[in-house]
Design goal:
This protein is an alpha+beta fold. The protein has 3 helices and 4 strands; from the N terminus they run H-E-E-H-E-E-H. The protein has a two-stranded antiparallel sheet. The protein has a two-stranded antiparallel sheet with strand order 3-4. The protein starts with about 25 loop residues before the first helix and ends with a helix.
């Protein structure tokens, strides 16, 4: 595997470094994914982790063998794990971690799409929460 750039290391591009962009309800599922990826490759890297349209988008960096060959086995395994976490996020409240569903809110104060349980949706709606 090629060496990380001098400014960053693989370990500062892992899931724990991206937790601040998601609500607390999604953090346990992301930490579970982190542990699964660590078991496959301790130096894995995340290219992007972002909430979008009430769900998560997780892009794990490709890996290459010492001879420069693309590691397709890694890509398949990491992709399946990331997809499972994305699907789980679509039915998990972003705020509290309870079962939830995608909610849309739009008014004069703004528009947001989030996955929330009934309780957190009511609270967010009353506060005029913006995602």
């Amino acid at each position: 595997m090629s060496a990380p750039s001098p400014r960053t290391t693989a370990f500062d591009q892992q899931i724990p470094d991206h937790l601040s962009v998601v609500g607390p309800g999604w953090r346990p599922l992301l930490m579970r994914l982190h542990e699964q990826l660590l078991a496959l490759a301790p130096d894995y890297r995340v290219d992007e982790l972002t909430p979008k349209l009430g769900g998560l988008r997780i892009y794990v960096a490709d890996r290459f063998e010492d001879d420069g060959e693309f590691d397709g086995t890694w890509a398949d395994a990491a992709g399946r794990l990331a997809e499972t976490a994305e699907l789980e996020a679509e039915k998990t409240c972003e705020s509290c971690g309870s079962p939830g569903r995608t909610r849309f809110h739009g008014d004069q104060h703004g528009t947001w799409i989030k996955t929330l349980c009934d309780g957190c949706h009511s609270t967010a709606h009353l506060r005029g929460h913006r995602g």
